[in-house]
Amino acid sequence: MAKILMKGNEAIGEGAVRAGCRYFFGYPITPQSELPHYLAKRLPEVGGLYLQAESEVASINMVFGAAGAGARVMTSSSGPGISLMQEGISYLAGAELPCVIVNMIRGGPGLGNIAPAQSDYFQATRGGGHGDYRVLVLAPSSVQEIIDLMQDAFDLADKYRNPVMLAGDGVLGQMMEPVILDDEIKPPSLPEKSWAATGRMGRDRKNLINSLYIVPENCEIHNLELGRKYAAMEESEQRWEDYHTEGAEMVLVAFGTAARVCKAVVDMFREEGRPVGLLRPITLWPFPWKRVSALADSVRCFLTVEMNMGQMVEDIRLAVNGKRPVRFYGRVGGMLPVARDVYREALKILDGGAD
Amino acid sequence: MFEAILIAGFGGQGVLSTGQLLAYAGMVEGKHVAWIPSYGPEMRGGTANCGVTISSRPISSPVVSEPTVLIVMNRPSLEKFQNSVVKGGIIFVNSSLIDLRASRNDVRVFYVPANEMAEELGSGKVANNIILGALIELTGVVSPGAVEKSLQEVLPPHHHKTIPLNLKALETGAKLVRNGQKT
Predict the structure, then answer these.
(1) For residue A25, is pLDDT > 50?
(2) Distance from CA of B72 to the nearest CA of A (A)
(3) B138 found inside a domain
(4) Between chains, do B39 and A171 touch, taking CB under 8 Å as contact?
(5) What does the domain layout of chain A look like in residue ranges?
(6) 249-268 of A, contacting B, C-beta below 8 A
(7) In which domain, by residue range, is B8 found?
(8) Strand, coil or helix: what is B164?
(9) pLDDT of A187
(10) CA triplet B147, B149, B151: central angle to 5 degrees?
(11) What residues of A are in contact with residue B57 (Cβ under 8 Å)?
């Protein structure tokens, strides 16, 4: 076990290599360019292939091709580039192809800026492309967790034959933190992909990778099957971290970088003996509504803290279902919430009866 | 313990790698550390900075907006960041390149002619480590031993021959503080 200091973007690359990813297609954009930079050097070392495509549209369609051939494959970008990829993501979901898409979110809308944000929550969790589909979204909040979640990202993509998105932000991508890496890199163990288009191999039928169901009856069956798959993901894959939620009168809800800030806020309250806790969603979709719903039976109120104008707050309100007040605090445009400000906001709600 | 250190200067002065060295040393000592660079539409010869947080507790935001210690290697950085330092904090000014006095009177300010002192040791490139040595001596944020160990890890092997010079620079900075040199 080696403990080294590593940048978030590089950790995504190393985590992907260790998870058996051997193909990367992408196009540079700040604040995630260290990731393709890292993989350009790293993938050839393990017999993989790195290719800088001519655009994000090309990248995601190269991912489609590699995934269709059964490869562990990844692309990455930030807001504007992820928007360009949405058509391809919809096709990947429609054709039930496993892949990992990384979005290191920056300030938007439009060109916005290159500072950290969480304003692509809707796009990630609602499916930014057309049609009825879902993408499983993982939201790490430290560099170590990035490494750990990359393995899960690829495994879940294969398990459900579905795109998985890793949603970070500029801070997570740019920061360096200590990470513990196994000395030994295990050879990737990939599940058998009997559906992959790798040649007929004596079978009586061709494998076809396709999202076209021209007959409405067939397309309905396809959508219902996809729906059952998404329901199974919602049932089995909700992930979260509880931080001092036991006996809490107020629970903060935050993910990624905002959750790091909120942990400091919880510590400030706990030092004063006030029961405030944090629920940190690790899967943004499926949203951990089971846990939120259970907490709604015991807490007085929720405060969601996001680096956007209020997106995840809608999922919390759905899960709370009117049982408790759900308040929102956000910083936007690439600004980070400050612990002292969040503390003040929470105190106002707790003491002022603003809930 | 908690220190949020902001290191700022021209691109090319080594402010990012100095920050990495400090963060690495904190990690070697088992502390919580985070390092984050300024990133943006920077230009060659423009300013660069990084924030290093070293703490006995998990680090919330790695962004250093209210430094407890500020190291400024050039004049624009002093002008830009001196007001962000917390009351009672510390500012190290590279007086070789900065002909301005800090305007704060509620912080401790150390003026170190780092480039000249580094040249005397044999290379202007170790100017950062003279100030880093002073910082470590003054705050005890990490031990000199941890920095020495980290130099092996942070410097690429073909630069390991510069380790003795870097150590000399760190010790020279530490001596400044021990001898009570201030303003």
Answers:
(1) yes
(2) 21
(3) yes
(4) no
(5) 2-199+224-236, 241-352
(6) 257, 260-261, 263-264, 267
(7) 2-178
(8) helix
(9) 76
(10) 70
(11) 267
Q: Which residue has the tokens 């990202």?
A: A153
Question: A2-199+224-236 belongs to which homologous superfamily?
Answer: Thiamin diphosphate (ThDP)-binding fold, Pyr/PP domains (3.40.50.970)
Q: Are A252 and A316 in contact (CB under 8 A)?
A: no
In this prediction, residue B181 carries a pLDDT of 59
Taking contacts as CB-CB distances below 8 angstroms, the residues of chain A near B66 are: none
Q: Given this model, what pLDDT does residue A148 score?
A: 96
**Strand ranges for chain B from DSSP E:** 2-10, 32-37, 47-55, 69-72, 90-94, 108-112
Q: Look up the pTM and report it.
A: 0.95
Do B11 and B46 touch, CB atoms closer than 8 A?
Answer: yes
Are the beta carbons of B24 and A5 separated by less than 8 Å? yes
Q: Is the CB of residue B29 less than 8 Å away from at least one CB of chain A? A: no
Task: Identify the closest residue of chain B to A264 by CA–CA distance.
Answer: B60
By percentage, how much of chain A surpasses pLDDT 70? 99
A293 to chain B, any CB pair closer than 8 A? The answer is no
- The rounded distance, in Å, linking the Cα atoms of A266 and A275 is 8
Q: Find chain A residues with C-beta within 8 A of B153's C-beta.
A: 4
Give me the mean pLDDT over the A42-61 stretch: 98
Q: Tell me whether domains A2-199+224-236 and A241-352 share a fold.
A: yes
Greatest alpha-carbon span in chain A? 73
**pLDDT, average across residues A244-273:** 97
Spatial distance between the Cα atoms of A112 and B68, rounded to a whole number of angstroms: 31
Q: Residue B39's domain is classified under what CATH number? A: 3.40.920.10
pLDDT of amino acid A354: 55
Residues in chain B with pLDDT values less than 50:
183
Domain A241-352 has CATH 3.90.105.10: no
Task: Let me know if residue B109 belongs to a domain.
Answer: yes
